[in-house]
Write a structure and sequence with these properties.
Blueprint lengths: L32 E11 L3 E11 L9 E12 L3 E11 L2 E12 L5 E10 L7 E11 L4 E12 L10 H4 L3 H4 L12 E2 L5 E2 L3 E7 L6 E4 L31
Antiparallel strand pairs: 1-8, 1-10, 1-11, 2-7, 2-9, 3-6, 3-8, 4-5, 4-7, 11-12
């Protein structure tokens, strides 16, 4: 009896059903880390407002659409239970055009990431607007300590001509604020003159193997995700081969 050998066929990999908008960059491994100073203030009273005003704002068209975004946020720790509100107001020569407000409940001595954005339809032509951003903190008890790592407020430009990022941007956006805006840190003004600044604190940042940025983590409470939304969210300490290592 003649036996015929069948030809081996290389199995085909099934098509990708879902694809993230962000891929591994290969520049950073996730093990690199930095130790950064934070600014710490002693606040007399039960509330304080930080603000920033941009008098000449021109929006960038994002995702190949007539969409413009102004983002704001940062990383903050407050020594008391507090309420934190980020408000963005957009005006032109005719007055108020739009506003956006988001409020967070902050637990005492607990690092939080906060962010908010205002989105408008961008017309053809470089129309100029004025944008005011306020970050108001109301403490449950008077006289508290405020610690700030970084604050952001600016026009979002990273997604210009990146239409493939449009859906990814709107998937669980709140988990990724303020880092999803890709903004440089900036200074805010206090509504009190010369707030009392005390000895600085410290925070650890880890490298991201996708965007190659250094983003903060909470080493004292690893289940508290800051710059990395999935970092030890369900169990800690982190045992990831790369991320659990700290290379300075």
């Amino acid at each position: 009896m003649e036996i015929k050998l069948s030809k081996f066929l290389q199995p085909k990999r099934r098509l990708t059903r879902q694809r993230s908008g962000f891929n591994v960059g290969g520049i950073k491994t996730g093990s690199e880390c930095l130790l950064s100073q934070t600014k710490v203030f002693r606040i007399n009273g039960s509330q304080i407002t930080l603000s920033k005003k941009d008098p000449s704002v021109v929006f960038t068209k994002l995702f190949d659409k007539n969409l413009g975004i102004y983002g704001a946020g940062g990383y903050i720790k407050i020594s008391t239970n507090s309420e934190l509100t980020i408000k963005i107001e957009l005006t032109d020569e005719s007055g108020l055009i739009a506003e956006s407000k988001k409020t967070y409940k902050v637990s005492n001595s607990h690092w939080v990431r906060v962010g908010n954005d205002l989105q408008i339809e961008v017309e053809d032509g470089a129309k100029t607007y004025s944008v005011s951003v306020s970050l108001k903190i109301v403490s449950a008890t008077p006289n508290f300590q405020l610690e700030i790592y970084e604050l952001y407020a600016d026009v979002v430009k990273f997604y210009a001509e990146k239409s493939n990022y449009f859906n990814a941007f709107y998937e669980k956006t709140d988990l990724y604020k303020p880092d999803i805006y890709y903004l440089d840190s900036c200074e805010f003004d206090f509504d009190v003159k010369d707030p009392e600044q005390i000895e600085p604190g410290y925070i650890v940042s880890k490298s991201c193997n996708r965007c190659a940025r250094f983003l903060p983590i909470d080493v004292e409470n690893e289940s508290n995700s800051l710059g990395f939304s999935n970092h030890c969210k369900k169990k800690a300490p982190c045992v990831h081969n790369a991320f659990s290592r700290y290379i300075y």
